Amino acid sequence: QAHLEESGGGLVQPGGSLRLSCVTSGFAFAKFGVKWYRQAPGKQRELVASISWSGASTTYADSVKGRFTISRDNAKNAVYLQMNSLKPDDTAVYYCMINGYWGQGTQVTVSS
């Protein structure tokens, strides 16, 4: 059974950094691209970043381009989201999605 678990969220001041992790099990992780989404209170879920199965191709939302970096380690069945220069607008629950499966999310709060 597919399982995804995000971690690494927390409270950080504006300008700070966090590294989110999504560790998976129960399916052939290395065959699939991965997407990070986020959902802020009262807003629709937003695609933040994506990475191809090999890691060779990545895409980013304009709002995070140049600040966030998505990466993956197929040997560890894991995907990461390095978030730098965080802003209050980055506050949201962050989810990873692979082949239609979702994790439970991890809360990121950017506040002074």
Beta-strand content: over 45%
CA-based gyration radius:
13 Å
Give the N-terminus to C-terminus distance in angstroms. Answer: 40 Å
Mean pLDDT: 96
**Spans where pLDDT lies below 50 across 5 or more residues:** none
Main β sheet profile = 7 strands, mixed
Number of helices, counting only DSSP H or I runs of 4 residues or more: 0
Taken from the alpha-carbon principal axes, the silhouette is globular
Helix-strand topology string: EEEEEEEEEEE
What class, by secondary structure content?
mainly beta
State the oligomer.
single chain
How many β-strand runs?
A: 11
Q: Considering DSSP H and I runs of 4 or more, what fraction of the residues is helical?
A: under 10%
Could you explain how this protein is built, in words?
The chain contains no helices and eleven strands. Strands 2, 4, 5, 6, 9, 10 and 11 form a seven-stranded mixed beta sheet that branches. It has a four-stranded antiparallel beta sheet with strand order 1-3-8-7, with no helix packed on it. It starts with a strand and ends with a strand. With 112 residues, it is mainly β.
Summarize the structure.
The chain is an all-beta fold and 112 residues long. It has strands at 3-7, 10-12, 18-25, 34-39, 46-51, 58-60, 68-73, 78-83, 92-98, 101-102, 106-110. It starts with a strand and ends with a strand.
